[in-house]
């Protein structure tokens, strides 16, 4: 029987790496994003004009049957402190990209995730404490961290024995990050393909997962460690 995964944010840099890895492992992969991922088995296309409720209805209505894993890697980054002229716009964007997508993925898990399945959301390492130069981003990612704790509790609505966690990367090695920070130390950036391999290990139970944990992803000298918090 073919295993199934839903990748929320499947056309982003990390999303593409995850889709590609699971396809190579002969999983059926559904990508959810504003743009199609041609490598995915199925695409669910979102509309930028969708409200949160409309996005939820669109995604849940398009997923048929039960899935083994749901991974939400949708998101983005925007800076700005409390005095920034873009504070409100950037904060609203960060909330939509990280919190709305995580909420829809969680609701989908309540409807379609198999018992014992995996739900992984995306937080951020810096959001474990204050982020004064990127307030909207930090608030949104901290909300995702709280969501994980809520989902791992009793009567959260997700299936029995499901595992829920969040990845907390520092900096992912993506073309956009390289273009924006050309002078950075790339040996401290985490390759997207490596994260995809780890997610596959979690989804297949080859790598143990503790539900409710935030998993710090730290790369130093091209070596990455995954630490549950």
TrEMBL record:
InterPro entries: NAD(P)-bd_dom_sf, Sc_DH/Rdtase_CS, SDR_fam
GO biological process, one term: tetrahydrobiopterin biosynthetic process
Presence of keyword NADP: yes
Main enzyme class: oxidoreductase
EC number: 1.5.1.34
Gene Ontology terms: cellular component: cytoplasm
A GO molecular function held by the record: NADH binding
Pfam families, alphabetized: adh_short
Assigned keywords, A-Z: NADP, Oxidoreductase, Tetrahydrobiopterin biosynthesis
Record-linked PANTHER family: DIHYDROPTERIDINE REDUCTASE
Assembly: Homodimer.
Family per record: Belongs to the short-chain dehydrogenases/reductases (SDR) family.
Name the UniProt record assigns to this protein: Dihydropteridine reductase
């Amino acid at each position: 029987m073919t295993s199934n995964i839903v990748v929320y944010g499947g056309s982003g840099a990390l999303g593409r790496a995850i889709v590609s890895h699971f396809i190579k492992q002969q999983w059926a992969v559904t990508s959810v994003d504003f743009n199609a991922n041609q490598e995915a088995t199925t695409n669910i296309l979102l509309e930028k004009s969708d409200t949160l409720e409309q996005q939820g209805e669109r995604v849940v209505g398009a997923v048929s049957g039960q899935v083994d894993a749901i991974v939400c890697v949708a998101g983005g980054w925007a800076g700005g402190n409390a005095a920034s002229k873009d504070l409100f716009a950037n904060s609203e964007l960060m909330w939509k990209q990280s919190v709305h997508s995580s909420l829809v993925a969680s609701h989908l898990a309540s409807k379609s995730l198999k018992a014992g399945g995996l739900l992984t959301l995306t937080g951020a390492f810096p959001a474990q404490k204050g982020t004064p130069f990127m307030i909207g981003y930090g608030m949104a990612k901290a909300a995702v961290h709280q969501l994980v704790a809520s989902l791992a509790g009793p009567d959260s609505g997700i299936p029995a024995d499901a595992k829920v966690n969040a990845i907390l990367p520092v900096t992912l090695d993506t073309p956009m990050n390289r273009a924006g920070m050309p002078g950075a130390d790339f040996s401290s950036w985490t390759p997207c393909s490596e994260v995809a391999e780890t997610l596959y290990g979690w989804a297949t139970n080859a790598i143990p997962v503790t539900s409710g944990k935030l998993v710090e992803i730290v790369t130093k000298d091209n070596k990455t460690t995954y630490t549950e918090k």
